[in-house]
From TrEMBL:
Residues 128-467 form the Glycoside hydrolase family 20 catalytic domain. Keywords: Glycosidase, Hydrolase. This is beta-N-acetylhexosaminidase. It catalyses: Hydrolysis of terminal non-reducing N-acetyl-D-hexosamine residues in N-acetyl-beta-D-hexosaminides. InterPro entries: Beta_hexosaminidase_sua/sub, GH, Glyco_hydro_20_cat, Hex-like_dom2, HEX_bac_N. Pfam families: Glyco_hydro_20, Glyco_hydro_20b. Belongs to the glycosyl hydrolase 20 family. The keyword Nucleotide-binding does not apply. Its EC number is 3.2.1.52. Residues 3-124 form the Beta-hexosaminidase bacterial type N-terminal domain.
Amino acid sequence: MFLPRPLTVVPGRGELVLDHRTTLGAPASLAGVLAMLRAALRPATGLPLREADPATITLALDGTLGAEAYRLEVTPESVTVTGGAPAGVFHGCQALLQLLPPAIHRRAPVAGLRWSLPAIQVYDQPRFTWRGLMLDVARHFLPKHEVLRIIDLMALHRLNTLHLHLTDDQGWRVEIRRYPRLTEVGSWRRESQVGASGGRPDGRPHGGFYTQDDIREIVAYAAERFVTVVPEIETPGHVQAALAAYPSLGVTGEPLEVWTRWGVNRNVLNAEESTVAFFTGVLDEIMDLFPSRYIGVGGDECPQDQWLADPRSRRRMAELGVTDLRAWFVGRLGAHLTAAGRRPFGWDELLEGDPVPGAVIASWRGTAGAVTAARRGHDVVSCPDDMVYLDYRQSELPTEPIPVSIPLTLRDVYAFDPIPPSLTADEARHILGGQANLWTEHADSPRTVDYLLFPRLCAVAETLWSPPGGDYADFDRRLTRHRERLTAFGVEHRHPDGPHPWQQRPGIPGRPATREQRAAHIARLVAAFQNP
């Protein structure tokens, strides 16, 4: 019936039928949530849904509930959705929508349906405060309207954090007015690699970026749906798009183009004070655009060889008294964010060098980063690649499009728990929650994004919201109905039997791996902070 799985459900007797007499009501403090509910109900039902007091459907607040907790009560006469704060009421409204036929998500009147709600009592609250999705818009750009659609789908699943990966070697996607060449030059590339290992160039320019007005719209749209947008500006590696725009930021200073390949790039930022000032200036504009408490600074997959081979970089390390320019650079940006009242957010490579005070660690290389970070007192967002990297292939079927790494089936993803079992209760308090990550090297269209995200993101949403120990068979049963909702919403999700013919990419090489190969690779990567 529900997705994510609620804490308490008590079925009642009878039902409430929505018709032309149905009215809505809420206090002024919930006017925005009421407007959202009306906007969700009206298109498919065609009902006027006027406001009245008393009302058929009433929204209310109860300070004894948690901010995101809700209580939903349906009788044959009325509906009451109560939350500890507007966010809780909004989540309760999503549960209410799931009691209606899936066609409620159609955007035009649907004839011949009986819009009825079963009598029921529901109490629910989330397990974690960070329930997220990382969306990579740097490798392949997603137009603004598609980002807004993803936010709607996140809200439907009670996810509350959109981590936007805005910059990388292959593109810079956010307007920075003091440095216009970042988007004039850095927002497009002349072609793209198609496929993974041995992939060929497609010869087709690709690009796009969000203006500052676009970003403000995205942030406000998300806030109305109780989703926080966390921006990420990659440093000091994964920066070739910035180097193409401003070559003086690089170690060599040589002209570069926006990178057209995938993988780890050796070109990194130099360690000059002018380059630090450049990126603190970028972050000042980012902080003006994004009210999020957390600001991403990257820190991952940053080769050191270019610094070590460069005499000026070696002298700079000696001047600074450091052996790791990556940690030093991210630390400088972290200090700038902290001074502005924000918290730096970066990948688990931040654990390899000098600590970045107050940094929140995104643990992606298995669970080792989460364990190490929590034991060192860092807050953690769990996103282990072997559980929630949704660009990974979904089965062993030869028809999976551009197969990457290990298979992550729906059952595999449903088994995700952000808290590693080796942590003590005190250490586990540092786990803020988790997120799914979608890297888009091989997701070059919204249709492919849908295929990779759904229904696996449904499983992530349930594991982050609901109590631990879910029953996969029960989830799979409820998902059958939920797939109808996704279809009504317009989501081109993966079929249980595998990809449809038009979702396949025959003849394009991938990068498949076994779990043993992946485990050995990750063990080598995390050795730096596990055995300092």
